[in-house]
Every structure is written in structure tokens, then in C-alpha cells.
């Protein structure tokens, strides 16, 4: 179709085959009389138009019109040149893919990647071939930062840039075929791949990434006699600490990339995967390379790498979610919800299951079944519970699912008093009582727990006892003791703090009950990245962070307990001196001290939910009678002796009425002050014994773990001698597992020696004995006792 333009730049209607509509006729009003108009003329006699025409091109000069025509011609010429260039490029035809209308292209790629999942293959070959890939460190040369091109001189003497074919640095086997080792094997480049790595120095992050013309190839070793070709497989790549991200090994990650990312996540949980990869790509660009890293491949490969590391530790008898100092007797468990750990619904993903399903975060189906069972045994009661004037949003029995655009609404976690994560679950209905009840039931089956700490214990514990009466399987939970966290107790009423507060619980020591808040502050920062992940990706990332958090806590557990014991000893002496000074200030004896403590306990025990309404009614009546008595007293008394009615009716603890006996009345506030100091001194004395017990349990735990490894290694030695191995692991893999167990035993022996020397420096009581004396036989102990008797 030809388009014709007029001189004014307008397109003619005929060239577009457009039928122009006839112009509408305007109605003219009849002139009532003659109208005379004057025309203005310039000095040359030309008529000056009264209205300027809209078509500005009519006023253009000839030079402006020529410039406009030239610019239009140049623009059209550039368009034609670009069209010719694009048509000269051969674009391959897109492959036909069976698409489902409801699936996006990203979802189809993820499903295709799952069908070719390599995780079982990686796990099966991890123990074969180079089965020491967990410990071997090859001093292979990492490619330099120079561009993989070099300058050559052609026949005409001109310098030209030629591609440099780089081969993946991997040691070749000494023998690839039956021709022997004295053959002159040749190494040629094979299949192309991409390698992502980080410098071993750890100072500057560097990526070796080839894309486009910069190719990295797998080596191919050729035998000149039989022409046999060897290329590295997955077991060879793992032996050299290369992690294949795809089944075809087109993308490889050095182990250092994953370990560095994990350590950076532990140091800064808010760091996103995208920011980490952008940093690597920026470093690649700064060294002259171009390319990008697939986010989905990195995310999947990192999760598989972390899961394989967990399976290796699991075979080495490592328990990532168990506190060595709280095994087998655990003093306290602290549970709380974290509403910041939500996840958006739009991050659906492909529905693949989590690799760490049920390891740390409980399975949603199991939690949902328990919640339904609890709700079937209770009467529906909406609203929040209150404690005095305070209303707690987390204190409720039922709650509806949020209407916001989120799937998981939060996370409920439980920790020990050393801040080690034990278990967690997903929130789907807010912070209801059934969630901590589930964690309490699960943890009671695996540990001997004494106290259960919460920030709303005064409302949760009656609820738990009511459910235990209806469900017999919950009866063992009533053997625990309630514990109101120390800091949250300040927001409750005074009677609630005295009755449920952790500082007033006998045997609790210096347990705060707020240890879960420290972990929540760590996990809340990670939510900045996990809320955009898929369901399985979020669960795996939280589990990896939880295992890393526990690993750091366990590594420094001996130093933490030693420092805590020293500080507790110093504070116990200080608080005992403060109590003595307070007794001297109040001029009371030890008998009076015990009596005041009992008075405060009785005062707090008189309050209950069942009689609260009746007590409030009686209190209102008592205030009216008191007001009448004060008015009668003020009428007869002098002005200086009159009583303030408002202060008296407020029942202030410091006000003593004139008709009360002055010598027998003691302010409740003074009694409460003495009560708090007495409870603090008792808790400090208990804390010393508790820490000593935890030190002992820590050493016992390491000793038992070492005995388990020795027992397992003994059986493995017998199996290897008899050429027996598990059906799931090959003989080479069995030997690789043995090497892992030997390495783990070496680390345990070193850790036990360090822990023992740390605790030996602490001046503990005589009740603490190091486990080094446990190796003595009974006969040796009897001989020592007999020798001591003979000496005496």
C-alpha cells in the first residue's frame, strides 16, 4: 500500500482508501440588517488575516519545508536499514511445546526440571568413586581473571583476537582403559559447561562465568591405542568439589559458592539470593566477562547441597535440633509466635514438597489434624483474653484465617533456655492456644521438661488443663509447671506476676523465659527474603538457617555455661548482701521475713477467674461504705486531720487510715519489695546448681555420642573385613562413610577435650565431677576405697 503525503505533511485519504464523509452544513442566521467589516492591510497593501490558520506548514518558508522533508526521508531510510539488518539474522524457529493453558512458562520449566531431578543420583554417587569429596581439597588451578582470549598474528601480520578454549580444572585418572598407564593420553575439550566459583582466599569475591563465545569445556581423555574416551562424571565432579546444577552438567557450582552464601545468610539473614548473585555478576563484569546466573538453578542447587550435607551429618549421628546441655533433663522450654514470618499467596511455585519436610517445621497436615481435634472438644469463644487492664492479641482460643494476601501467617517456635531451636510450625489462624499446645505435646515425648514458658501463661495454662481433662493423651502435659516470662510479666497484674511469674517459681533458677525472642529477632530479618519464596523454598531456607543458628550455639555452649556460672556466683553474693541490708533497713527478723513472703503468696492466691465478678461487686460495696465513713469522720475532725476521699477509695497501699492500729499495719508494697528480693536470692542459689548439672549433661552427651560412633565404626570394620555392605550403598561408598565417621570421631574427641578443659577452669561445687572419671572400672574404684581405708 502506498501512502501519499501532501506538502503540509498530511496523509491523503485516497491513499488509505478511506471514504470521506460529507461535511455538515452549518445553519446560518439571517442578518437583520447590513453589517460592514473593515480589512486591515500592511504597508505593502496586503490584507492582514484576522485569524491564524491552524496549519502551520502553510506559513513555513521554503527552507524550513526542505529541512522537514529531508528529516522525514532520513528517518524512513533508517527504518529500512534496521529492517534489512533484522531480516538478515537467522533466528531459529521455536520448538513446539505442549503447553497447558493454566501453566506459565516458568512453571513448565520447573516441572521439566523436577522430572529430571538429580538429587537421588547425587546422593547415590556421593559415596562412590571419589567418596571422600567431603574432605578432599584439590589444589586445582582456578581460572584467572583475564579474558579468555589471546592476541595472535595472522598471515598478513595483523593482530587478531582468537578464542581461548578453557578446560575445566579436574585431575585426569592415571588409567582410563586396559591399555595401561604408559600410553600417551591426549586431553581435548569436550562438552561445554559454565562454572561459578569464588576465590579460595576469601578476600575478594570472583566469579568465573563463561557465556556466549567464552566457553568452558569438560576434559575428554583419549587413548591413542583403543581410541577410548573418558569424560568426568558426577562422582568425579563431586570429588573435585564441583556441584552440578543440572543433570547434563551444563552448569557447575564450586562448593565455596554455597558455603559462602550460607555463612552470609547467617551473618545477615536479610540478604536475598538475588542480591548475592548480582554481586557475583558484578564481579564478573568488572573482570571483563559477561553473563548471568539462573536464579532458579542456583536456588534448587543450594537446597540440594544443604540437604545432602544434612544427610551426611545424619549418618554421622548428628542431631541438629537437640541441646547437649538439656539432654536428657530439660529445665524449660520457651514458646512464642512470630507474625512477621508470613508468605504471600502469589508465590505459589510448582507444589513440590520440601526437602526438609517435618525436620524442623512440623507437617501442616499433622498440625491441622491436631487443631481440628482440639476445636471439636471445645466451645467456640471469640475475642481476646485479658489480664487486668491489659489485652493480649496472642491470647485467644479460636481465630479465623486472615483475609490478607498471605498463605502462612507466621511461625510458632520453641527453644530451650540456651536459645537452641527445638521445633516450629506454621501459623494459618493467628496465634491460637492450639499451636503451643501442639509443640508442648511433641516435645514432651522426646524430653523430660520441667517448665513451659510463655508470655500468656496465666490464660494458656487453664486452657491446657481443660483440654487435658477431655483428651487423655494430653494428661502428661499437666506434670509440667507453668512459667510466665519475666519481662512479659510486667504487663500483667501484680497477683498474676506473683503467682505465675518465672522469678517466683521454685526450681526455675535464673531462667528468663524470653530466650525465644532472641531467635525471633534473627528469623524476622530472614523474612524479608522468604516471604517471596515458594512454600517448599521457604521451609527449606528456614530449616537451613535454624540448623546454622543451632550449630553456632552448640559450638560456644561450653564458654556460655562457664561465663554464666561465674556471673551467677558473683550476682548471688551481691543479691544476698542486698537482702541483708533490706532486712536491717526494715528492722525485721528471719521469722518476719518468712511471714511476709507467705502473706504475699496468700494475697496472690486469692484471685481466680471464677470468683472475680463476685469480688468486684463486693469491692464496689466496700468502697461505698468506706466513703460514708470518711465523710462522717471529716465532719467531726479538724481540717488538718481530714482524709482525702479519692485517695482513700483508690485503696492505695501506702495510705493508713486513722482508726487502724499504727503498730500492726505494714504496707503491702513493703512486703512485695521484700518478697521480690527473697525470690531473687533463692533463684540465684538454684541457678548455680542448675548450671553445674547442665555442664555435667553436656559432657555426658559428648561422651555418649563418641561411644555411639565407636560402636558403629566397630561394626563397619567387621563388615568391610567380611566384604559386607548395605544394599543402598556400594562398597566404595561404605568406605567413604567410614571416613566420614572417623573424621566426626576426631572432631568429637577434640570437642570433648576442649569442653572438659573449659569446665575444669570453673570453680564449681564438689557435686560436679568431670566425665573423665567415668572410665574407671568398678574394681578400680573399690581398690581406691580400700586403699583409703588402709591409709586411715
TrEMBL record:
Write the protein's name: CxC3 like cysteine cluster domain-containing protein
- Its transmembrane ranges are none
* Pfam name, any one: CxC3
Highest taxon in the source lineage: Eukaryota
Residues of the region (Disordered) are 769-792
The Acidic residues compositionally biased stretches are 775-792
Task: Name the InterPro entries on file.
Answer: CxC3-like (IPR040564), KDZ (IPR040521)
Amino acid at each position: 500500500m502506498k501512502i501519499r503525503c501532501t506538502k503540509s505533511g498530511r496523509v491523503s485519504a485516497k491513499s488509505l482508501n478511506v471514504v470521506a464523509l460529507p461535511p455538515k452544513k452549518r445553519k446560518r442566521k439571517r442578518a437583520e440588517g447590513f453589517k460592514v467589516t473593515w480589512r486591515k492591510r500592511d504597508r505593502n497593501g496586503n490584507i492582514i488575516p484576522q485569524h491564524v490558520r491552524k496549519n502551520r506548514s502553510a506559513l513555513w518558508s521554503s527552507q524550513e519545508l526542505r529541512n522537514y522533508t529531508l528529516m522525514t526521508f532520513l528517518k524512513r531510510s533508517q527504518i529500512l536499514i534496521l529492517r534489512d539488518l533484522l531480516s538478515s539474522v537467522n533466528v531459529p524457529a521455536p520448538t513446539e511445546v505442549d503447553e497447558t493453558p493454566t501453566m506459565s512458562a516458568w512453571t513448565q520449566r520447573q516441572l521439566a526440571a523436577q522430572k529430571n531431578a538429580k538429587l537421588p543420583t547425587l546422593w547415590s554417587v556421593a559415596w562412590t568413586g571419589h567418596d571422600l569429596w567431603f574432605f578432599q581439597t584439590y589444589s586445582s588451578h582456578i581460572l584467572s581473571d583475564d579474558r579468555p582470549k589471546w592476541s595472535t598474528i595472522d598471515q598478513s601480520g595483523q593482530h587478531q583476537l582468537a578464542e581461548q578454549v578453557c578446560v575445566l580444572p579436574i585431575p585426569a585418572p592415571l588409567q582410563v582403559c586396559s591399555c595401561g598407564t604408559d600410553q600417551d593420553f591426549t586431553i581435548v575439550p569436550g562438552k561445554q559447561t559454565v562454572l561459578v566459583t569464588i576465590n579460595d582466599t576469601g578476600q575478594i569475591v570472583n566469579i568465573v562465568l563463561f557465556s556466549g563465545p567464552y566457553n568452558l569445556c569438560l576434559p575428554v581423555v583419549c587413548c591413542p591405542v583403543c581410541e577410548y574416551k573418558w569424560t568426568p562424571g558426577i562422582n568425579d565432579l563431586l570429588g573435585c568439589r564441583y556441584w552440578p546444577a543440572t543433570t547434563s552438567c551444563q552448569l557447575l557450582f564450586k562448593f565455596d559458592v554455597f558455603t559462602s552464601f550460607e555463612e552470609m545468610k547467617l551473618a545477615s539473614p536479610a540478604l536475598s539470593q538475588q542480591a548475592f548473585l548480582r554481586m557475583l555478576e558484578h564481579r564478573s563484569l568488572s573482570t571483563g566477562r559477561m553473563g548471568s546466573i539462573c536464579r532458579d538453578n542456583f536456588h534448587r542447587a543450594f537446597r540440594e547441597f544443604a540437604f545432602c550435607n544434612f544427610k551426611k551429618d545424619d549418618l554421622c549421628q548428628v542431631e541438629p535440633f537437640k541441646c547437649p546441655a538439656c539432654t536428657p533433663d530439660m529445665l524449660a522450654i520457651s514458646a512464642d509466635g512470630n507474625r512477621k514470618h508470613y508468605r504471600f499467596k502469589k508465590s505459589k511455585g510448582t507444589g513440590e514438597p520440601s526437602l526438609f519436610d517435618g525436620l524442623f517445621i512440623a507437617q501442616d497436615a499433622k498440625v491441622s489434624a491436631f487443631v481440628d481435634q482440639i476445636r471439636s472438644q471445645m466451645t467456640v469463644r471469640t475475642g481476646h483474653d485479658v489480664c487486668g487492664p491489659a489485652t493480649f492479641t496472642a491470647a485467644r482460643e479460636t481465630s479465623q484465617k486472615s483475609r490478607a494476601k498471605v498463605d502462612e501467617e507466621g511461625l510458632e517456635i520453641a527453644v530451650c533456655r540456651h536459645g537452641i531451636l527445638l521445633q516450629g510450625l506454621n501459623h494459618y489462624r493467628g496465634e491460637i492456644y492450639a499451636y503451643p499446645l501442639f509443640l508442648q505435646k511433641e516435645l514432651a515425648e522426646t524430653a523430660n521438661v520441667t517448665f513451659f514458658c510463655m508470655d500468656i501463661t496465666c490464660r494458656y495454662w487453664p486452657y491446657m488443663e481443660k483440654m487435658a481433662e477431655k483428651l487423655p493423651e494430653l494428661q502428661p502435659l499437666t506434670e509440667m509447671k507453668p512459667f510466665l516470662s519475666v519481662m512479659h510479666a510486667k504487663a500483667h497484674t501484680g497477683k498474676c506476676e506473683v503467682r505465675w511469674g518465672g522469678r517466683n517459681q521454685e526450681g526455675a533458677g535464673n531462667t528468663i523465659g524470653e530466650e525465644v525472642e532472641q531467635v525471633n529477632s534473627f528469623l524476622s530479618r530472614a523474612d524479608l527474603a522468604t516471604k517471596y519464596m515458594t512454600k517448599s523454598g521457604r521451609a527449606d531456607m528456614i530449616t537451613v538457617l535454624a540448623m546454622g543458628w543451632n550449630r553456632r550455639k552448640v559450638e560456644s555452649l561450653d564458654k556460655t555455661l562457664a561465663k554464666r556460672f561465674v556471673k551467677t556466683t558473683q550476682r548471688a553474693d551481691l543479691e544476698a548482701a542486698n537482702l541483708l541490708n533490706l532486712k536491717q533497713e526494715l528492722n525485721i527478723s528471719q521469722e518476719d521475713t518468712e511471714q511476709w513472703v507467705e502473706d504475699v503468696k496468700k494475697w496472690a492466691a486469692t484471685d481466680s477467674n471464677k470468683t472475680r465478678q463476685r469480688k468486684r461487686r463486693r469491692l464496689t460495696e466496700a468502697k461505698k461504705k468506706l466513703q460514708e465513713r470518711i465523710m462522717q469522720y471529716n465532719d467531726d475532725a479538724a481540717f488538718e486531720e481530714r482524709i482525702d476521699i479519692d485517695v482513700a477509695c483508690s485503696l492505695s497501699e501506702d495510705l493508713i487510715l486513722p482508726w487502724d492500729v499504727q503498730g500492726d499495719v505494714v504496707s503491702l508494697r513493703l512486703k512485695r519489695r521484700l518478697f521480690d528480693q527473697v525470690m531473687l536470692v533463692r533463684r540465684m542459689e538454684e541457678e548455680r546448681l542448675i548450671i553445674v548439672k547442665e555442664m555435667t549433661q553436656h559432657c555426658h552427651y559428648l561422651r555418649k555420642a563418641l561411644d555411639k560412633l565407636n560402636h558403629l565404626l566397630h561394626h563397619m570394620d567387621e563388615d568391610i573385613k567380611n566384604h559386607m555392605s548395605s544394599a543402598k550403598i556400594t562398597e566404595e561408598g561404605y568406605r567413604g562413610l567410614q571416613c566420614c565417621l572417623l573424621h566426626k570421631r576426631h572432631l568429637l574427641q577434640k570437642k570433648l577435650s576442649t569442653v572438659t578443659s573449659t569446665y575444669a577452669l570453673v570453680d564449681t561445687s564438689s557435686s560436679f565431677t568431670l566425665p573423665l572419671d567415668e572410665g574407671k572400672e568398678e574394681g578400680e574404684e573399690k581398690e581406691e576405697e580400700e586403699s583409703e581405708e588402709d591409709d586411715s
